[in-house]
Structure formats: C-alpha cells, structure tokens
Amino acid sequence: MNSTTQTAHLQPLAQLALDLHALLTELQDRRAAQAALVSAQPNGPTLAERTRLMAKRAKEAAAEWSASRPQMSELLERTSLRLQAIDMGRDFGTRAQRQAANKIGQYYEGLARQLRAEPTVTVNLPELRPKNYTRNVFHLANGVFGAALYTAIDDRMVMLTIVAGYVAAMGSLELARRFSGRINRFLVDKLFASIARPSEAWRMNSATWYGIAVLIMMGVGFPRLSCIAAVLTLGIGDPMAALVGKRWGRHKLVGRKSLEGTVAFAISAALLVQAWLMVFFGDALTAAGGWTAALPMALVAGVAGGIAELYADRLEDNFLIPLVVAASTALLVP
C-alpha cells in the first residue's frame, strides 16, 4: 500500500475509532448498557449487534493494515478479540465484563494516539473518560492529603524534599513501564486498575503530572496558602466538574465541558478553600481582616481553576490547574 493510498484509508480508520469510542461509552456505563440490552433502538441494531459488528470491522481493518502498520493492526486485532468475548447475556455488567470493556478502552486509546499523530486525520478522537467513583474519591483524598501535609509542616525545604521524593518515585515507575510491557500491564491492569484511565496505559499518569506541578509551585516560591488552595481546588473541583457535568451538563462551553460542570467546579473549590483557610489559619486571617480575608483567595481559586479546567484538554489538567490557581491567588495572600 503506497503513501497516497494509506492517507486515503486513514480517515475511514479514524471513523471506526470514533464509532468504537461511542460504543465503549455505552459499554462502560453499566446503566446505559443494560437499558440498551432490553430496548433496542426503533430503527437500529441492539448493543449486542453493534458490538459484533464492531468486532467484525476491527478484524477486517486489522487484516488490511497488517503489512503497512503492524502496531496498528495488532491493536485492532486485540480489540476485535475482546469485543467477540463480551457476553451480552443476563450477567452483563459484572466485574469481568467491565474489565473487558476497560481493556478495549486501552486499545482504543492506543489506536487514537497513533491516529492523532497523523496530519491527514481530521476526525476528533476524544479521550475516553468513563465514570469512576473510586478515582474521584482518590482525587479528593490526594488533594486533602497534600493540603494537610503542608498545613502541618511549615517548612518549605522539608516539603520540597518530600515532593521531590514523590516525583522521583513516580518518575521511576514511568520509566520502568516504558521499557517493560509486563510492568506497565501490572501497574495499569492490576495495582492501579481501580483508578487508572484507559489512556494512562500509553501516557504519563495524572498523579505524576500532579507531583510535577506541586514541585514547580514550591520551587518557584508561591506562598504557602496559595499552594494549599491550589491542591484543594484540584482535589475537589475536578471530580465535582466530572460528576455534575456528566449527569446534568446540558449547556456545552468548550468541547464536552459544560456550564453546569464548570459552575460545580468553581463553587465546590471556593467553599473548600474558604473553609480550610478559616479552620486551620483562622487566627492569622482574623488578624488580617476577619473571615473575609480568605474570601478573595477562595473565589479566585474556584474561578481560575474552573477556567483552567475548561481549556485543559491539550495539557494535563492535573498539571495546569494547580499552577494556574497558585499563580492567580499568590498576590491575594493576606
């Protein structure tokens, strides 16, 4: 297959990936998938039929690209096999079925990653972000833990050492899984399976980006209260935006990001930052002007974080949001 022919065939392949994304969105939403099983579309195939058709299309595409794009062909072949193995019977939605859907999601992300690098592909292939309440809880706990640590330890050098050690450890794991498929599968499919996104099988994970952002914040010398506000904002704002946006988001602002999700981000972050600063730094803030001394910081943290989250698709949000919030609130520290 010459280069001109390859270019002509990449668009249909991108469309196949986009259709796979739509199918996975249903497969990974247990309630939506179960509803689709018992009620087919009036003039369309059932979810089971769509899954079988997608398996066939992926197998045909794998055969077509086996010679010219072996890596792409392998991902398509694995996707086809996993789709064929999914049982749409009464037990659909069990842990094994969800794990199968998550694995197909990883294959989709691998395929999308290759296609996004092709300048001739004009189809937008979004990152797959299934509902994950465990990840949301972990996200919040991570932010609260970081804030609690810096609240308890008022020594920048000690905190810098702790954060640097964390980044070094996470960076070592990132390097290890780049050189070893076995380590990568163990980390993504087993150790961190409950909180990992499908795309993190192919890219640096969010926790590492978060650690790098905190290291930069502290290394640059942002005020202590700004750093605390930044990690709290990320910790609660991001999961709240996802939960509210996916359930009630009707008015789209940027891509899939909704007005409802952004408002939830800003309000939840502002409330948590205000409460934290008043509880743990109340005496200092009272001396600086009462409870309202923390209010400008809290409001700016929520709004700045919400805006950063809107435009974080091209840059990891766990990296961008803390830096934007820390910079935005730095001059407001009493």
Structure write-up:
73% of the residues lie in helices and 1% in strands. Strand 1 (252-254) and strand 2 (257-258) form a beta hairpin. The chain folds into 2 domains: 3-116; 133-332, no CATH class. The relative contact order is 0.08. It has 334 residues and is mostly helical. Strands 1-2 form a two-stranded antiparallel ribbon. The protein has helices at 3-27, 30-38, 47-64, 70-85, 95-116, 133-152, 156-179, 181-191, 206-220, 224-248, 259-289, 295-310, 317-329, and strands at 252-254, 257-258. The model is unreliable at 1-5 (pLDDT under 50).
Number of domains: 2
Share of helical residues: over 70%
Span of the ends, CA to CA: 66 Å
The helix/strand order is HHHHHHHHHHEEHHH
As laid out across the biggest beta sheet, the strand order is 1-2
**Low-confidence regions:** 1-5
Biggest sheet, open or closed, and with what strands and sense? 2 strands, antiparallel
Spatial shape: elongated
Find the count of extended strands (DSSP E, 2+ residues).
2
Chart the SSEs and their pairings:
Elements: H1 3-27, H2 30-38, H3 47-64, H4 70-85, H5 95-116, H6 133-152, H7 156-179, H8 181-191, H9 206-220, H10 224-248, E1 252-254, E2 257-258, H11 259-289, H12 295-310, H13 317-329
Antiparallel strand pairs: 1-2
List keywords for this structure.
single chain, 334 residues, mainly alpha, two-stranded antiparallel ribbon, 13 helices, 73% helix, 1% strand, elongated, disordered N terminus
